[in-house]
Write a structure and sequence with these properties.
- The chain is mostly helical.
- It has four domains: 3-90 and 190-245, no CATH class; 92-182 and 252-344, Metalloproteases ("zincins"), catalytic domain (Zincin-like); 372-479, no CATH class; 488-587, no CATH class.
- The chain contains 25 helices and four strands.
- A four-stranded mixed beta sheet has the order 1-2-4-3.
- β3 (143-146) and β4 (154-158) form a beta hairpin.
- One of its GO terms (biological process) is proteolysis.
Length: 596
C-alpha cells in the first residue's frame, strides 16, 4: 500500500472539503438573507400610501452585507472553537465519548491482549505506541483511531468488540485503524468535525429563537418564524455537511480494509470481524450522545440501520472486497467463535503473552517486544517509572552529579535500571522508547517540562555520541509539540544532514560514506550537495524534527534516499537499522521494519 500517495490524497481531499464548505456556507448565507429580508418587509411596513420595497431592493441593501458578515462570523468562530477543543488530539475525542484509558500493568486478560496487539502494530509501523481507550458501556462491535498525527493519536475499542473478537480479528481491526493513522485520515476527520459544528450551530440559533419567542405579539410570531427558518436551514446545511462527510469517509474505509489485509497478511482476521458485526444483535452501534459527530472515525456505522448518508460502505460490500466468494452467511462465524473462545480465551486475571501464535506474530515487532526484559517493559507502562527509565537511558555514568534536584530514591532507581539497560542492544532500546509515550503522556505539564529540561542536560553532558543523541531525539519527539516548518532551503539542508548522519554511521570507509551520501542526495534531486563530514549533533537535533512537515511526495523521496544510502555497501548495519527506525518516528512516515 502506497501510504504516501494516500496521505497526498487526504491532503487534496482537505482542499476539496474547504471548497465544499465554502459553497455550503455561501448557500446558507444567501438563504438566511432571503428569509430575514422577507421578515423585515413584513415587520417594517412603509408609511401609508408608500409602496412596499421590493425584495431585490432589500437584498441589495447594506443590511444584506451585515447579515452575511454576521452569519459567516458565527459559523467561522464556532468551527474555530470546536477545532481548539480538539487540540487535545485523539485523547479529547475518546474521553468525550466516555473512553477509559487502559494501563498495561493493571489490565485484565482481554485488555492486555488489546494492548499487546496495539504495541505490535505500532512497532511494526515504525511509529510510537498510542494510548488505548476502552468504551466500557458500548455493547456494539466497533473501534476508532483519532488524533491530528501519530504524535497524539489514540486507539479506541468498544467493550462489545473486546468481548467478541479473537486475536486474529482484533489484529485485523487494529491494523485497519493504524492504516487511518498512516494514511493521514485522522486530521481530515477532525477537520470534518469542526466544519460540521459551525454549520450545525445555525440550527441551535433557530432553536434558541423559537424558545425565546413566547407571546402572542406580531413580533414574537415573526421571531418564531425566523427561528423555524434558521432551524430548517441549519438542518439542510448539516445534511449537506453529512453528505460530504459520508462521501469522504466511505472510500477511505475500503482503503483501510485493504491496508489491514496487507499489514497483517491475514485476510480472514478483518473479514471475520466484519461478519461478527453483521451477526451481532448490537451490530456496530455506539449509543453515546457525543458519538454522532465522530461517526466517521469508527470502524463500522454507529447507526447501522441508517443507510442513507452512511459514513461506511455496506458490510456485504466490504466483506466481498476481501472475500469475493463469500456465501453471504454471518451465523457460522458466530458458532465458530463460540467454540474457539470456550477453548482458547484466557482467564480474565491472566494477561496474555505478547507473542501468541498468529500470522502477524511473524512481524519483527513481535520478536523485538518479546526480547525485552519484563521488568523494563513494565516500567515503560507506568508514568513515574517511565520517567525514571527515560533518565536512566541518558544517564552519563555512576559519577554524574549534574541533577542535584533528583530525590535520592529516584537516583537509586536510576542506578538499578542503568545496568539492565546496558545489556540491551541499541535497537531494543529504541523499541523500549517507542513503548513509553502513553505513560509519559500521563505526566502533568509541569512534570513533562521538568523532565525535558533534565533530559536535555543529560544529553548535553555527552553531546557527541550516537546512542545518547538517539535517546534524546526520540524522547524530545514524544515530549514536545511538532516544531514550526522550516523554510524551503532549510528543509533541503536538514534532509542532507540526515543523509550525512546515516552515511557517516553506516560506513567505516570515507569513500563509501561519501558515495552513500551523494547517492541519497541525488535521490532528493540535490545535485550540488557538499559532503557534511562529521555529524553536527546540536544542529541535527534542532532541524531534523521539523522534517515532519514535509509534503508526502517529499517524504517519499527522502525515504527512497534513505534506502539508497543504506544499500550503498550492500550491508545494513545495526546502527543503520536503528537510525532508519528513528527517522520513521521523526518523519511520522511508514518505513518497513527489517529483520535483525
Amino acid at each position: 500500500m502506497d501510504f504516501f500517495a494516500q496521505q497526498d490524497q487526504a491532503r487534496r481531499r482537505t482542499g476539496q472539503l474547504v471548497g465544499l464548505f465554502i459553497l455550503a456556507v455561501l448557500c446558507i448565507i444567501a438563504l438566511i438573507n432571503l428569509l430575514t429580508q422577507m421578515l423585515f418587509i413584513s415587520l417594517d411596513p412603509p408609511p401609508n400610501g408608500q409602496p412596499l420595497p421590493s425584495l431585490m431592493d432589500r437584498l441589495m441593501s447594506m443590511d444584506t452585507v451585515m447579515i452575511g458578515v454576521a452569519t459567516l462570523a458565527v459559523i467561522t468562530l464556532v468551527s474555530l472553537f470546536k477545532w481548539l477543543m480538539l487540540r487535545g488530539g485523539g485523547a479529547a475525542v475518546a474521553e468525550s465519548m466516555g473512553g477509559r484509558r487502559l494501563n498495561a500493568n493493571t489490565a485484565t486478560g482481554q485488555e492486555q491482549r488489546l494492548l499487546n496487539v496495539v504495541e505490535e502494530m505500532a512497532i511494526a509501523a515504525g511509529t510510537s505506541v498510542p494510548p488505548v481507550y476502552l468504551l466500557d458501556n458500548e455493547s456494539g462491535i466497533n473501534a476508532f483511531a483519532a488524533g491530528h498525527s501519530p504524535r497524539d493519536a489514540v486507539i479506541g475499542v468498544t467493550r462489545g468488540a473486546l468481548d467478541a473478537f479473537d486475536r486474529n480479528q482484533l489484529q485485523g481491526v487494529i491494523a485497519h485503524e493504524f492504516s487511518h493513522i498512516l494514511n493521514g485520515d485522522m486530521r481530515l476527520n477532525l477537520r470534518l468535525m469542526a466544519v460540521l459544528a459551525g454549520i450545525l450551530f445555525i440550527s441551535h440559533i433557530g432553536e434558541l429563537l423559537m424558545h425565546s419567542s413566547r407571546g402572542r405579539s406580531k413580533e414574537s410570531g415573526q421571531l418564531a418564524l425566523l427561528g423555524i427558518g434558521l432551524l430548517v436551514l441549519g438542518w439542510i446545511g448539516t445534511l449537506f455537511g453529512k453528505a460530504i462527510k459520508a462521501a469522504v469517509s466511505r472510500q477511505r474505509e475500503f482503503l483501510a480494509d485493504a491496508s489491514a489485509v496487507q499489514f497483517t497478511r491475514n485476510p480472514n482476521g478483518i473479514a471475520d470481524a466484519l461478519k461478527l458485526i453483521g451477526a451481532s444483535q448490537f451490530s456496530s452501534s455506539v449509543n453515546h450522545a457525543n458519538a454522532s459527530e465522530s461517526s466517521h472515525l469508527f470502524f463500522g456505522n454507529i447507526r447501522p440501520k441508517t443507510h442513507w448518508l452512511a459514513t461506511h460502505p455496506p458490510l456485504e460490500d466490504r466483506i466481498r472486497a476481501i472475500e469475493p466468494h463469500w456465501d453471504g452467511k454471518y451465523a457460522p462465524v458466530v458458532k465458530q467463535m463460540a467454540r474457539r473462545q470456550a477453548a482458547q480465551q484466557p482467564a480474565p486475571s491472566q494477561p496474555e503473552a505478547a507473542a501468541a501464535p498468529s500470522p502477524a506474530s511473524r512481524l519483527m515487532a513481535v520478536t523485538l517486544l518479546a526480547a525485552l526484559p519484563a521488568t523494563l517493559k513494565d516500567a515503560s507502562h507506568e508514568p513515574e517509572q517511565a520517567r525514571e527509565l527515560a533518565l536512566a537511558l541518558l544517564w552519563p555514568g555512576p559519577d554524574y552529579d549534574g541533577l542535584p534536584e533528583l530525590h535520592s530514591a529516584i537516583r537509586s532507581s536510576i542506578e538499578v535500571l542503568v545496568p539492565q539497560l546496558a545489556e540491551l542492544t541499541p535497537r531494543q532500546k529504541l523499541t523500549l522508547l517507542e513503548l513509553m509515550p502513553p505513560a509519559l503522556g500521563m505526566l502533568s505539564d509541569n512534570q513533562r517540562t521538568l523532565l525535558l529540561e533534565q533530559l536535555q542536560r543529560l544529553w548535553q553532558a555527552q553531546p557527541d555520541q550516537l546512542g545518547p543523541w538517539i535517546v534524546w531525539s526520540t524522547l524530545n519527539h514524544f515530549l514536545t509539540p511538532a516544531p514550526k516548518p522550516l523554510p524551503r532551503n532549510a528543509e533541503k539542508d536538514a534532509s542532507l544532514a540526515l543523509l550525512g548522519l546515516l552515511a557517516h554511521q553506516g560506513h567505516s570507509d570515507e569513500q563509501q560514506r561519501e558515495r552513500a551520501f551523494f547517492r541519497g542526495a541525488n535521490a532528493i534531486t540535490v545535485y550540488n550537495a557538499q559532503w557534511p563530514g562529521d555529524p553536527d549533533w546540536p544542529k541535527l537535533s534542532d532541524t531534523l524534527p521539523a522534517l515532519v512537515h514535509l509534503r508526502p511526495e517529499q517524504k517519499r523521496k527522502l525515504i527512497r534516499a534513505i534506502e539508497l544510502c543504506v544499500a550503498q555497501d550492500g550491508v545494513e548495519s545495526e546502527q543503520e537499522k536503528v537510525l532508519v527506525q528513528l527517522f520513521a518516528l521523526l518523519l511520522e512516515a511508514p518505513i518497513a521494519l527489517q529483520d535483525a
